[in-house]
Amino acid sequence: MNTSPLTPPISPLALSWSPANLSHLNRRYEQLHPRDVLRWGLSTYGADFALATGFSPSGIILMHLISQMKPRTVVFYLQTDMLFPETMQLRDELAERLDIQFTEVHCNVSLEDQKGRYGPNLWESAPDLCCHVRKVVPMRHFLSTKKAWATAIRRDQSITRAFTQVISWDKNNLVVKLCPLATWTSEQVWEYIREHNLPTNVLHAQGYPSIGCIPCTQSVDSGEDERAGRWAGLKKTECGIHVQPVEQVEQVEKFA
Q1: What are the residue numbers of the active site?
Q2: What parts of the chain have a pLDDT lower than 50?
Q3: Does domain 12-255 have CATH number 3.40.50.620?
């Protein structure tokens, strides 16, 4: 079996599930509360379940729910070395408020090393490749020991997410993928945040509805698409975690 760090082994834990035998679960949980979706994931997979977060308001809701249902559930984030200081401040606030011990997942490639390998400002010259190195690969490694993971993406965030299923098979990581908030709207998210007085990134109040890495995130005008400030001016709309950029994957693996 290929044990290259860019192609981690497939976890045998996840192979009992497939798209076919998850479809009925997706239909069953489509109209249920996110709490019910999380409860199913937590009870089914236990320690082999993890929540991914980019510290968005939607992600904070899932953290809040999990902190009430099963404290000490693994909650991880991808440390790209280019996250806003405000994002790190929010992480620390959430850790104290919700009693979460965040797991930091890193690609083990410094920005300086990346510059030496691919040239300066890879996020400008080849943004898909940059995301693959700093997000997709380390996440794939991390999830190779898990059976299921949850993410806070929603259908109303963008066209590319419009058909997001609540429970599905993650063909990129070969694990079960839960999107408990898939059917929620932005209005529902903020209503929940206000109702429970949960902290959010201070940059949201400064025109940043979606916040990622510093060089690839811009503020947007009122009324623009929620993710309009991500990779603004490029055709790119996703980092690759939810939509795999095959061409850039091949470039990385050839380099290895």
Answers
A1: 239
A2: 1-15, 244-256
A3: yes
Domain ranges of the chain: 12-255
Query: Helices (H), strands (E): how many in the chain?
Result: 10, 6
Percent of the chain with pLDDT over 70: 85
- HSE-up (13 A, CA, CB side) for residue 165: 14
Counting every residue, how long is the chain? 256
For residue 48, give the nearest of 139, 149, 178, 179 by alpha carbon: 149
Q: What is the pTM of this model?
A: 0.85
- 167-170/175-178 β-pairing: antiparallel
**Using one digit for the tens of pLDDT, what is the confidence trace for 165-208?**
999 988 889 899 999 999 999 999 999 999 999 999 999 999 99
- Which residues are CB-neighbours of 102 under 8 A, at least 6 positions away? 75, 76, 77, 91, 94, 95
